[in-house]
Amino acid sequence: MTTVLIIVGVVVLAAIAGWLLLRGRATGGAGLKRRFGPEYDRVLARHQGDAKLAEQELEERVKRHGSIGGQPLSAEARERYTARWTRVQERFVDAPEDAVAEAGDLLDELSRERGFPEAGSAEERAEALSVHHATRVDAYRRVHAARDGSGGTEELRQTLVEAHGLFDALLGKRTAEPAERGRTTDMRKQHHAKGSVTS
């Protein structure tokens, strides 16, 4: 009698585990869509609409980078990074391309200090960042893509504004300070005052 009860218990547990596994697979895509947002659509497009391949790639990213906890920054480090970002914004007025390139370097350095792994390419780092900053990772790609100097001033300004959002997220800020947000508007005003035009 005891043996029968044990067998029945094992069968019931196996059935429950199977049901949970199937349920997890059924909702896995929806969970990945919620987690990755626009990054999900980007990966899906790269796999020519094959949701299974796209979700396998995203699940692999979570396995590789999901445990990154974000190394804490000291108050001194936060002040140092904030001061450097301010200099990037100020430099934009006279040298937009150089400022955006410097912003890319700064994001690389800050992400490494926060615990993201060394990467062989900007895209490898973008994949790691996408696990934790999916809604902002495109700004990282745009900053690095802008290094070729093909964008106009207004496009570069917008790229820097978006990169600022990722910078704040990596720094641990929820939103930019009003004074910081005002600086991006000032960049545009100063450019117009100097007679700069968007190419």
What does this structure look like?
With 199 residues, this protein is an all-alpha fold. It folds into two domains: 2-65; 75-194, no CATH class. Helix content is 76%, strand content 0%. It has nine helices and no strands. Helix 4 packs parallel to helix 9 (178-194).
Using brief descriptors, characterize the structure shown.
2 domains
| Computed structural class | mainly alpha
- The average pLDDT value, as a whole number, equals 80
Helix content: over 70%
Helices, by number, come to: 9
Helices and strands in order:
Layout: H1 2-36, H2 38-46, H3 51-65, H4 75-92, H5 96-113, H6 122-132, H7 137-145, H8 153-171, H9 178-194
